Amino acid sequence: MFRSSSAVRWCWSLIAIAAGWVALTPAAGGAQAGLKLGARLEPLVDDYLIERLSGGARQVLHSPTPREVAITHDAPWEGSASGYHTVFKDGNRYRMYYRGQDMEVKGTRLVFNNPESICYAESADGIRFTKPKLGIVEFAGSRENNILRDRFGTHNFAPVIDIRPNCPAEARYKALGGVKGAKEGDGLFAFRSADGIHWELLSEKPVLTQGYFDSQNIAFWDAPSGQYRAYFRDFRDGGRDIKTSTSPDFIQWSKPEFLDYVDGRKTQLYTNQVLPAPGAPHILLGFPTRYITGRGLLTPLNEMVARAHPRYGNDYTDGGFMTSRDGKRFKVWSSAFLRPGPPREGRWMYGGHYQNWGLVETRAEPGMPELQPFLPQDPGMEWSLYSSEGGWTGHTNRMRRYTVRQHGLVSVQTRESAGELLTRPIELTGGSLEINFATSAAGAVQVEIQSPEGTPVPGYSLADCPEQFGDSTTHRVRWRYGDSLKSLTGKTVRLRFALRDADLFALRFR
């Protein structure tokens, strides 16, 4: 069998490209101008890149995998009503903020056994969190606790690291907190901190007043648009929904507007949990709490709660997912991202399955030790998020960690029958095409590069692309003559993906 050298293969590649050059058009100007992706990662969480799906190909939302309990709220100043968690990574440390409070049902009454406070926990790995003794706030005659604030704003305090360029050191951390009708002021207050532990007001007056605010109200610096974005709860047409506002300085905010939804929202939305996608901040991801009313009494716990408050016993919450590219118009998936699961975990309740705000990288579980000499030493990273369970009784609740592959929230998937994805015209940049994909042992992905009119580029047709199989977040696509795309840089192309029992999660030009 003839085996060509790398030099000969390169020559054949150049000949093939030259033969098909006339099929390609310049990227600039004209009807054929392509999407300008540059080197940015493009997760397939929406239809931005998708011209057509055919055969058995469809977009699929992937639920995360439940892991261990990350923290249990069982201290006297915490309890069953602890909630509204924020988690982010800060250097080598994972920080967690949440409301501490205990509540129980006594006969036909809901009883709160302690006042609300803002609590803090941290972790070295994002897997198990501990509660440091901060020595800041006194509770029951002692400062040996993890309470960092017990004044107003405690109901829903949601901190973030401010990544705005030239952000002053004394305001490196910011937060919103407050509710409608609070005695301190009617609305959301803005806070700042230099260390994430000691906080002070940015303004003596609330910075946002047009909303109901009694859930987790979040804000962050949106680098692509060069402004702060806030998301918070209000009522629309008698149901719970989400408003947004923008600001240049975290103090002066635009008039709040309700979100728009591509196909309408299928349920009421309680929390929103909107954040920039890690590694792809031009896309916003949301993990809202879906609120479903009047389903009936499912368990004895629901019956007990209903005696104290009928709505709380008959209404349920679970985890949703939505995405946006402009911060205002969102695609909301009609299926749940996080189902409540088995009743034994105590998530079939109103407020019983709240997702945290924050999506953090954590190290994946290593493989079998005896196989390590033959496999990659670094198991890689995955994403972790957290959701509440328990509550309403027992003076405790807890947060369970869930994991999902990086940018593995949505894929173009095929299973029983093969299918194809055809992209819109794209301005090709970079020296190679990298994909995040997974197949079965019998599955495969092949990629064809086409002209905008659909003509295969010689050397990059489907027949020139060997079947790619495996599971990787950074796989470099190969064709007959190698993986280089440098000779096509600046041209407008389409990508045709042929999938068989496979998932395609994301792509980028490197």
Describe the structure.
The structure is a single chain. The protein has helices spanning 6-20, 300-308, 310-314; strands at residues 25-26, 42-43, 50-55, 58-61, 65-73, 83-90, 93-100, 103-106, 109-112, 117-123, 147-149, 158-161, 173-177, 189-193, 199-201, 218-222, 227-236, 239-247, 257-258, 260-261, 268-269, 274-277, 280-286, 289-292, 316-319, 322-324, 329-332, 360-363, 381-390, 397-404, 410-414, 419-423, 426-427, 433-450, 471-476, 491-509. The chain is mostly beta strands. The protein folds into 2 domains: 6-62 and 411-509, Jelly Rolls (Sandwich); 65-407, Glycosyl hydrolase domain, family 43 (Tachylectin-2, Chain A, 5 Propeller). The strands form 8 sheets. Strands 1, 2, 3, 4, 31, 32, 33, 34, 35 and 36 form a 10-stranded antiparallel beta sheet that branches. A 5-stranded mixed beta sheet has the order 20-27-26-23-22, with no helix packed on it. Strands 5-30-29-28 form a 4-stranded antiparallel beta sheet, with no helix packed on it. Strand 17 and strand 18 form a beta hairpin. The radius of gyration is 26 Å and the shape is globular. The protein starts with 5 loop residues before the first helix and ends with a strand.
What's the quick description here?
This protein is mainly beta and 510 residues long. The protein has 3 helices and 36 strands.
SSE order and pairing:
Blueprint: H1 6-20, E1 25-26, E2 42-43, E3 50-55, E4 58-61, E5 65-73, E6 83-90, E7 93-100, E8 103-106, E9 109-112, E10 117-123, E11 147-149, E12 158-161, E13 173-177, E14 189-193, E15 199-201, E16 218-222, E17 227-236, E18 239-247, E19 257-258, E20 260-261, E21 268-269, E22 274-277, E23 280-286, E24 289-292, H2 300-308, H3 310-314, E25 316-319, E26 322-324, E27 329-332, E28 360-363, E29 381-390, E30 397-404, E31 410-414, E32 419-423, E33 426-427, E34 433-450, E35 471-476, E36 491-509
